[in-house]
Design goal:
alpha/beta, five-stranded parallel beta sheet, 10 helices, 45% helix
Length: 264
């Protein structure tokens, strides 16, 4: 709601914040400033009732394709009443505003669709290269939500495990299912028209093993998706109980990880 005064235009947000804007001040700058100062609950639902924030600002849910990230991300979003940001959307945005010569790794699957039929190990190496190319963009999104004090759940295949401070503003958990038959069944349930996707399931398990090894090296918890019924609760408990010390990351090579089964 707004009204004209001698000083400028007076604006009122959520029934609690009133400010007068000099006519020369761009309104979007004022909105941005108030967005940073208002309680999160006021920004979300426009009421005077303050809702308690989670003690993190970004909850990262990572893991390979077919592990249940999307489902658990949505369940956690309902639990904490925060939005979800999907890494796939970040990828689509970058594809829309760049050319292959700018970000060749990010454009790789569009410029080399035949590469998806290479050996699972080769596809995994490419997945890792794409994830590393996307890391700066993902980190910028994380930093923005921490800086603006707006909690969000970030989920996707291309999120790399990073060391995080215990009880800090960014928390991470990675999902990993090591049973290829189960991953293939997950795909079949989700995409029945595609039939059994054995090659894709193999790629997913191998990439997931690499991610799980990286997560453990960084001190990030790895959670088994099954049983599905209590996955969201188990992830929430893991995040809320996180108190392990940060471990300096040791980058495991893709070939080393692919040759090993993850620790139980």
């Amino acid at each position: 709601m707004s009204r004209q005064t001698e000083m400028g235009t007076s604006f009122k947000w959520s029934g609690t914040v009133t400010a007068t804007v000099p006519e020369r001040e761009p309104l979007w700058l004022l909105w941005l400033g108030e967005r940073r100062r208002l309680p999160y609950s006021a920004r979300v639902d426009g009421t005077d009732e303050l809702r308690s924030l989670p003690d993190w600002r970004v909850l990262v849910v990572g893991g390979a394709s077919g592990m249940g990230k999307t489902g658990v991300g949505r369940a956690l979003a309902r639990r904490y009443e925060v939005p979800v940001v999907e890494v796939d959307d970040i990828v689509e945005a970058l594809l829309a505003v760049t050319l292959p010569e700018h970000l060749p790794e990010v454009h790789f699957w569009r410029t080399h669709p035949e590469a998806a039929r290479q050996t699972p190990e080769s596809v995994v190496e490419r997945q890792i290269a794409i994830a590393e190319a996307l890391a700066p963009a993902i980190e910028a999104v994380v930093a923005n939500h921490v800086g603006t004090d707006t909690p969000v759940i970030l989920e996707g295949d291309y999120v790399l495990p990073r060391p995080v401070a215990p009880k800090g503003p960014v928390r991470s958990v990675f999902l990993h299912e090591d049973d290829e038959g189960q991953v293939m069944a997950n795909y079949l349930r989700r995409e029945p028209e595609a039939g059994p996707q054995r090659h894709r399931a193999r790629v997913s398990v191998l990439y997931g093993r690499w991610l799980a090894a990286q997560a453990r090296a960084a001190g990030v918890p790895v959670v088994a998706p099954r049983p599905w019924e209590d996955l969201a609760s188990r992830v929430a408990e893991t995040v809320e109980d996180a108190s392990t010390e940060t471990v300096a990351p040791t980058r495991t090579t893709a070939i080393q990880s692919l040759s090993k089964s993850p620790a139980a």
